[in-house]
Protein 1
Amino acid sequence: MWKYNIIQFLNNHPELTEKGIESNREDPRYKEQRVNLYQSLDEIEMCNDWLDRFYVPSKHKKDETSSYALKHYVENYFKKYIPNGAFVTAYMMKYYDYETVKYDPNLFVKVQPKLLERQRFLYHN
């Protein structure tokens, strides 16, 4: 069921590719990058799981970062390459606030880690 939801979301957001947000759909690589994102459903689920475990939305400027920076944390946690677009998709599916910049494939987000005790428990199990 979750993969069905991802596919539906991707169908409604043609700007998403494996690289993140693509503003130029005339780019010859657009279709290939779009297909690659559809082939990254497991990675999108991993990003969603990671966000649920470790982060919550924030309203504070000090908590601002890019989706690209966060996707590296996901890679370190799962010991697996994660396309930037997989993290962008997972984040957008949560309907958290974010900002975009024209011609930049990343989201700019405000998140903060969950309570330290919860993180310790999750990292040690």
Protein 2
Amino acid sequence: MRYPVRKNGFSLVELIVVIVIIGILTGLILPVFLHGGLDEGVSTLQSSVLSAKTFAVTKRKRCTLTLNANYYTGSNPSPCLLTIEDTGTSTFKKQYRLPKYIRFWQYNSAGFTSETKTVYFEPNGIAHDTPGITTPQDIIITIKDIKTGLTTSRTIIGNTCQIKK
């Protein structure tokens, strides 16, 4: 008497194919989770620079973008702030918040003094970080994810106020 052959489980080829598919999906998805906060920080920086330039040009007033470089890295850090204000009358003020673990970082970024950096936006559409001048300067801003240790830098182009990597 012959017993029917029962096929229980998966073959080795099937297991290898599933493991390869899982590996590919992990490789595509994992970077999104690791760099999510850093990308959001860059996006916030870009939005605040565009808002500051737009305000200065449309209102024909100099305005400032103050980057609060708070280095508190305890278990519950407070977020770093970006504040846009017009100079003189201070009738306009807008604040942006970086994600919780994203910080402005001094590494590769000269000019952070007393935990803040001020970027000036002129009515003619240029930017600089030195008070008292009206000529464009490129400004390098470095942000760091204090959870993962990853950093990225962006440059505010002085002539156009555009941001480049």
Protein 3
Amino acid sequence: MSQENEIIEDEAMTVTLTYEDGTEDECIVMDIFSVEELGEQEYIALLAVPEGIEESEEELEGEIILYRYEELENDEINLEAIEDDNEAQIVQKAFEALLEEEAEEE
């Protein structure tokens, strides 16, 4: 899977996921975070944006996708699927905790 980063006029950073079959999904980067329990590994939470919806809409709904995240040279990134069920559960819980913290701050 390859990815492209782009900034949309001071709005959310997006990533375009390109799958092996050539299909693409544009996703909004919700957060990049690490999970203390899992060491130095970073993770990224992406919100898949359904076609026809503007990123500026207040209430975006879509599928949240979690990947292992790594920054490469030349502003490129590498995303890797989380295949281990235990790791996926830990990352999901950590992301949900981040969402709760953000909601409490608002």
Protein 4
Amino acid sequence: MESKLTSRDIAAAYYRLAEMASEAGQLEEGSAELERMDAEALELFETLGEEVPEKLESLRAVSVRLDGEAKLLRAESKRLTGIARRLEREVERVRSYGVQILTAQREAGLPAKLKTSGGTFWLSTHKRLVGPDHISAWSEFGYTKTEIKPDRTAAKKALEAGETHPDFTIEAREVLNWR
């Protein structure tokens, strides 16, 4: 069974071909070194011609599979988050039953505290701020925060329009596409 080239092997072979093309331009026509390089280049081209399309197909298949799994996990995460929220609401509902029992006990003239073999139960008061839904009322009294965070879109548009700033650049990178 013939061993397959790895992605790194394929990339290294192409870099070697580019290197040989550069070196070949400096060699004399008909030299032994040039003939050796031609033979090596032909062998590399033959090997790459067979393996590159297959490797790209394999890479696409792996990428599509991983992307599908990531989407499934995101959906599962969203589903689990929904379940957790429902359970949290259920906790509040069940706790409200305990509040109702102790409140009724207090209204009946009994203490609003009960000790059992499993624990102690009592009522306490927790304070929570309730405010208007509209932000203007919060602003009017100075009860707002200003979050300063980078505006990447504005910075990119400014640099693409020709502005220059010493700490900002637009970095280009190549990505693989397929259909």
